[in-house]
Amino acid sequence: MKSIITISREFGSGGRTIGKLVAERLGYQFYDRELVNKVAERSGFSPEFIEEGGEYASAKSSLLFAMATAGQYSADGLSMHDRLYIEQTRFIEELAEQGKCVIVGRCADYILRDNKDCLHVFIHADMASRAKRIVERYGEKDKSPEKRLAEKDQKRRVYYKNYTGRNWGQAQNYDLCLNSGVLGEEACVELIVAACK
Amino acid sequence: MKSIITISREFGSGGRTIGKLVAERLGYQFYDRELVNKVAERSGFSPEFIEEGGEYASAKSSLLFAMATAGQYSADGLSMHDRLYIEQTRFIEELAEQGKCVIVGRCADYILRDNKDCLHVFIHADMASRAKRIVERYGEKDKSPEKRLAEKDQKRRVYYKNYTGRNWGQAQNYDLCLNSGVLGEEACVELIVAACK
């Protein structure tokens, strides 16, 4: 029985909800918002900065990402984004030591890649299902949902590449990848729980 | 209940065996060697050419692939590799019409990408598990198993990219991706059968 589950997910795929249901089913702690709050408390960064800066690059390419964040240095000489990444890494490593938890996002799959007690999950869905979901959840905006999703995907991909050197969504980096659009939320929960055992 | 399962797999991941067990469990037809024989019968190509040329590029880059196959034209003006791809595509589309089958490899995931009655599966494993498996199955060779696997991976990646334009092993192209090295053969069979329902 794996005692740590990391869940990476495309925005709008329902990965967060699926992770929460898996945690409930297994009686594990669930870390998403809780992780943000804890890192905020320890680092002094605002929850808003952590929410956005802890998973998303701020511009469209790694070069632009580096340029955009270049001026933002904290007292120890690291960029604000790098310092946040280090804080998140430390906290995720501590969570893993405690075990029995589900951790959503934040490169936890990469940070815990050598931990044999982990099940690494990636959840994705087709554009239409994700667009429907974000409109239901966050409402309509000026930009089309497809455009919002494409931007989120791009920022997350750049952030992930920048800190891990890996390609986001490459199956070989996970133990289990699920298409929630085809399989449905409930089946995804069942499959993760089954794979965990 | 999905009536067609496509299985793409890394060489040495046990994907073929897993596919066969899934087919037995569901009472579905299994197409791997059978597909090669049928395409041989219809096209006049030798089973050996189909086995190698129907999934693997013959050199290390798409350019070299194009160059290496450039001289090999069949009577209708298509390259031998392209003609084989077309024969395979036709046959796979016919199989899908009949339904209740498991099809291993041969870009079936791409060929049947718009078929709603399909479950598309990708099976992979870490290098060490795959190396162990191919030595048990095919014995030691002059080249190390790691080198043999790296070459097979590269050739399959180039072949797939050449005919589909996609990156091989990208999670978003499948409904279910499984790490057989971590999950084990039997669990993979169970998860595929469960996802199919």
Beta-strand proportion of chain A? 5-15%
In total, how many domains does the architecture of chain A comprise?
A: 1
CATH architecture of chain A: 3-Layer(aba) Sandwich
Order of helices and strands of chain A: EHEHHHHEHEHHEHH
Overall mean confidence score, pLDDT of chain A: 88
Our measurement of the CA-to-CA distance between the termini of chain A, rounded to an integer number of angstroms, reads 4 Å
How many DSSP helices of chain A?
10
According to CATH, the homologous superfamily of chain A is P-loop containing nucleotide triphosphate hydrolases
Helix content of chain A: 55-70%
What is the C-level CATH assignment of chain A?
A: Alpha Beta
Which strand order does the major sheet of chain A show?
2-3-1-4-5
Pair of chains with the largest interface and how many residues each contributes: A-B, 21 and 21 residues
Low-confidence stretches of chain A: none
- Major sheet size, sense and barrel closure of chain A: 5 strands, parallel
**What does the overall shape of chain A look like?**
globular
Q: The CATH topology of chain A, please?
A: Rossmann fold
- What's the gyration radius of chain A in Å? 16 Å
